[in-house]
Batch of 4 targets.
Target 1
Amino acid sequence: MPTFRSRHIVKSCIVLAPAISGCLALGLLSQATLAQSDASTAATTTSYLPSISDFMIATIQPRHVRLWVAARSKDWPFAAYELGNLKGAFDRLGQAHRMEHEIPLQDMISSVTARPFEDLHKAILAKDTTAFDKAYGALTSACNACHQGTNHGVVVIRTPTDAALSDQYFERGTP
């Protein structure tokens, strides 16, 4: 025959079991909610795609200037580095934005930059300022042609006039 103590233990277990189960369920529910919240935060965080303008202003335009500054300083290793960064920025832009005004953007970028990039590379290897200036001018013209072709002709890029100044031409009319 069960003793008073064993009956008390059984009753306590019967009363405590649902409470313990409830706590466990509540813990699992909060973990699931937290995981779902983390997943939605990650999805929101990774869904940002910089606009073409963001790419241009934040990565391409500064690299265009830095490339010029490097050549003016005759810092050819830095010029080579910035040329590689500029190419990479254009590649990322074309991958992120496949089409612009029904034009395959990567194809347009490649068609207007391939030759100037090749000529810039050769000029940097040769440490030839004159060849660099010519290739840099061709790249700058290619940028402006691309802006025209994508209906962004109001954005006119030029060879910087000073390392501290922007390479964007803000005055209306022909640069």
Target 2
Amino acid sequence: MTATAREEILARIRRALADVPKDEPAGMARGYLHEHGTRTAAETVDLLAENLADYRAQVHRGSEAELPAMIARLLTERGSTSVAIPEALPEAWLSELLPTVTLVPDSPELTPQRLDEVQSVISACALAIAETGTIVLDGGPGQGRRLLTLVPDHHICVVRVPDQVVTSVPRAFEHGRLSPVRPQTWIAGPSATSDIELDRVEGVHGPRKLDVILITAAA
């Protein structure tokens, strides 16, 4: 019987590992640079804001108390009358929404087709990476399924600073901040692509509009 490509690859791996002791540690030394330079927490947040803006995200800053009004204002400015709500999103965030805004809680019945009719989504995040201007979602509380933040045309993402901000990609994986077994969505600005002539098109693989709110954690 002819071996499949998968079986052949696994057989090669087994042969390569045949002389490795079973109790040998699986880890390896990672001596590469973990971040570029030294920054204060405030400088790291500023770098995040700069790189997010460079990717054409709209960046806003405020306090915990200002967050509900900021969310309401952004939805009004975008003309959104329906917004998807992940499970465990803090209710206080929605306290100033107009009665004309319909809340669409996440549920198994919320199909891609139904979600395509929803104009905006609000979410928290797992963390944000300053050097790359990247926001990471991992399906934790207030973040929802990947589907929830990829289908609506407008995404409002709340980042608590400085608690949820790390300097670099290697730092994001330290101390168990990101679990390799959770589904992750890495966001660098509104979804966009370009053709061979470099004509930029937004909204191809996710929201065309991304508002990031950097909220100073309450003391």
Target 3
Amino acid sequence: MGVALETDELWRYVDRERASLADLVESLSPEEWHTPTRCGDWRVREVAAHLTIGARSTYRTVVRDMIRARGGFDRMVHDSAVRAARAPVEEIVGHLRSVVGSRRMAPLTTPRESLLDVVVHGQDIALALGRVREVPPPAARDAAERVWTMRFPPRPWPLPGKRLVATDIEWTRGAGEEVRGPIAGLLLLLTGRPEGAREWLGRTSVPEQ
């Protein structure tokens, strides 16, 4: 089953997600910018800042940040977002708007990672704020398929013995006990966000990790 979006269509979804997310965070109160998310110690502020970095990065900045992080990839991602989040909120929103229409990507990534990043982190922000943020099923499916096939970094939870079945678009992966629901919820499961997935799938339908 071919599920990958054509490149131009994929970028249209990226642009739409970035623009709508910029609208969301621009509307937040100062207190809401400090709302904790489930992304480690990141608040909404750090998650939003993280989404502005990839399209503005160069190989030089990545090498510099890797040196700062002593070669740790996860530490580099974490610390770069923390630094970017120190900017005024108006600047963070401006950076997010500035990458709408951009086709630049973080070094060593593809357009599919750009879509995956903005879809999943958009949910991180919305769920932390108690907001409902709809996800176009074709975009969520492309992101879920990317995670399912990802080898580096490996997906956080390989869901052994589970068969994932989307109920709003054609997509099935895995074998075993069925977990059914909207593709956005299945995507959150695959990216290690079971609590967020329960908002989409229902509390009794999400298997324990």
Target 4
Amino acid sequence: MELAKIEQLLEKYFEGETTIAEEIQLKQYFSSDKVAAHLEHYKPLFGFLITEKEKQFTPSLSLKTKKRFTVARIGIAASLLFLIGTVTYFNYKPYNPTPVANAKLGSFESPEEAFKETQKALALLSEKVNIGMESVSYINEYENSKKLIFKK
């Protein structure tokens, strides 16, 4: 084959514009012993294409998956969650103290009686607050003593 024609076919091949017949010509040329010296570095490429074309693919992949078990586990978990939710919904009894309408929560018949009870409650509160304030006065005395001892 003419060297100029091979070089043109190589250019077309690397640009992706060759036909199948032209590619066969290139493969035949590079599989022969009469390859030009400056084109020797293309010989392994076309040799590789020839040898790989003859190989057959033999699948050796395991086609078994664990997808079935995962789906089953999700289904079981969803069923249990639904069952627990249903049982909880029907057995749940909210805390319901005696209704306010039926209970007598400090209600009085007359305003005078309510005023007296309020005064009693406020007097008790005032008494407890005063006891607390007396305790605080001891703290004030302690602070004054501390300032006398530890002068800054």
